[in-house]
Amino acid sequence: MVQVKNICCIGAGYVGGPTCAVIAYKCHHIKVTIVDLNTDRIAAWNSHQLPIYEPGLDEVVFERRGKNLFFTTEIEDAVNEADLIFVSVNTPTKKSGMGAGFAADLVYVESATRGIASVAKSSKIVVEKSTVPCRTAESMRTILETNSTGNLRFDILSNPEFLAEGTAIKDLLYPDRVLIGALQTPEGRKAQQALAEVYANWVSTDRIITTNLWSSELSKLAANAFLAQRISSINALSALCEATGADIDEVAYACGRDARIGPKFLKASVGFGGSCFQKDILNLVYLSEQLNLPEVAAYWKQVVDLNEYQKKRFVERIIKTLFHTITNKEIALLGFAFKKDTGDTRESAAITLCKHFIQERATVRIYDPKVADEQIFLDLTEPGIVITRSPYDASRNVDAIVIATEWDEFKELDYTRIYKNMKKPAFIFDGRLILDADKLQKIGFRVHTIGRKENE
Ligand code: NAD
After folding, report:
1. ipTM score above 0.90
2. What's the average model confidence in pLDDT over 56-72?
3. Is residue 224 within 6 Å of ligand 1 at its C-beta?
């Protein structure tokens, strides 16, 4: 059996960084080198201010960095030294050309794979950590075999990542499961076993699932599709609640108490965001279309369409409530990250909300505890945006407050102080169902919550 002693990870992003830092943290006998083309990102990984915010990440990185954990832009050396290489590069949705808007753009996976082939001097286990379309491993293997020199062997594994941003370190330390797919050949199984042994340093073996390559690739897309589908299902019900007087939290609780349904991922909201859910479902839609399965494609596409509908519906409710116009009005947007405990704004619902508000010629005063100002200006290039340093500053003299991210601190604000400094009537729109509507109503707010009639 191959014993892994040296790991390289290509891609020092939200997945590659934390995942491989945790491997280094749990496996002191393994040297882990994380490489990236982005020099600023690598410089940040080597500094006191890591490039991503993730609870618990600093402790893990600061404990192992310089011992058995290294960050570098020197890809060639790192690849050559490694017996096992994770490919953890970005796989965004294609922006132009055939399949644009749906297909995964595999340009980074291909270039990382070609990079491995061009410098490798010995046989390697190459692991897909990126989320990729089903059968990508086949393309990677062909690229590696036809572009490397010498008689090298490349075993490809699929080891999709299931961490959630905001809880990445906890998810990595205590995973529900680790999935490793391999070709079911003697060599494939050996490689699969070698990676399983790495995880077995801290994950119990009953949580390490081994499958064939294609099941593993498809399971990652399927898992994200299931999670997003639950959110779209509860959001679809939230519209019914607003129209009928049912309360979405009560409906979610009542349904979730059924052991067959379970309580998780039944929180209604303004819509899901993040770099993965939409992209991975669209990837599944594209795959289904390519395989001439239009009904399957339409089924999953509806999950994404409902998410767009939910954001639009929320904006329409805000405009209607603010006397059918928000032109020249000021709105405080509390939260800009796509969820709490991360500074990541990719596909954040807040971006869509802001764009609609600006189109209607409102001014948006944004506050988020973790998102950098530069990131907001990258996401929103339109005028009409004011970035503020506190929720109190954000809400000064505004017509309405919109909760876009479920940060815990928004539950504990001094709403009496906020109310005094707002225009009247003072509206608050809770897009994350985190506020105590009764308490706010007593202060004088007019409260609108997703999945509830006004002030009910
Ligand atoms: P990211 O954009 O944060 O990081 C990717 C990194 O890869 C970037 O820093 C980029 O510079 C680097 N890169 C690209 N091509 C390279 C190359 N040829 N050589 C060296 N570096 C290169 O992306 P991410 O959020 O870490 O996601 C990575 C993959 O993991 C994606 O496929 C994503 O779908 C998947 N995933 C993400 C999450 C999540 O929560 N972010 C969770 C599970 C799976």
Report:
1. yes
2. 98
3. no
Cα angle for residues 157, 158, 162 (degrees, 5° grid): 145
Tell me whether strands 6-10 and 84-87 are parallel, antiparallel or unpaired.
Answer: parallel
- Residue 161 bears catalytic tag: yes
Q: What are phi and psi of 97, to 5 degrees?
A: 85, -165
Residue-wise pLDDT for 245-287, tens only, equals: 999 999 999 999 999 999 999 999 999 999 999 999 999 999 9
CA of 109 to the centre of ligand 1 (A): 9
Write the CB contacts of 243 (distance below 8 Å, at least 6 apart in sequence). Answer: none
Q: What is the pLDDT averaged over residues 166-171?
A: 97
Find out whether the beta carbon of 13 lies less than 6 Å from any atom of ligand 1: yes
Question: Which protein residue's CA is at the shortest distance from atom 18 of ligand 1?
Answer: 112
Q: Kindly give the interhelix angle for 294-321 and 349-359, rounded to the nearest 10 degrees.
A: 50
From the number of C-beta atoms within 10 Å of its C-beta (0-12, 13-18, 19+), residue 236 rates as: middle
Cβ pair 352, 402 in contact under 8 A = no
Cβ–Cβ under 8 Å, residues 144 and 126: yes
Three-class secondary structure of residue 23 per DSSP: helix
| pLDDT-derived band at 340, boundaries 50, 70, 90 | very high
Peptide bond into 425 cis (omega under 30): yes
Residue 199 in 3-state DSSP?
Answer: helix
Share of the chain above pLDDT 70, in %: 99
Q: Choose which CATH entry (3.40.50.720, 3.30.720.120, 2.60.40.10, 3.50.50.60) describes domain 246-456.
A: 3.40.50.720
- Separation of 141 CA from ligand 1 center, angstroms? 20
Averaged confidence pLDDT in the chain: 97
Q: Using only the alpha carbons of the chain, give its radius of gyration.
A: 24
Report the residue count for the chain: 456
Q: How do the domains of the chain map onto residue ranges?
A: 6-203, 246-456
Q: Helix crossing, 294-321 with 277-290: angle to 10°? A: 150
> Is it the case that residue 456 has pLDDT exceeding 50?
no
CATH 2.40.128.90 at 6-203, yes or no = no
Does the structure show a pLDDT above 60 at 15?
yes
Rounded Cα distance, 267 and 232, in Å? 10
Check: CB of residue 349 under 8 Å from CB of residue 271: yes
Tell me if 362 CB under 6 Å of ligand 1: no
* High-pLDDT (> 90) share of the chain, %: 97
Report the pLDDT averaged over residues 36-43.
Answer: 98
Beta-carbon contacts of residue 365 (< 8 Å; ≥ 6 apart): 330, 331, 332, 333, 386, 388, 393, 394, 395, 396, 398
Question: Is 220 an active-site residue?
Answer: yes
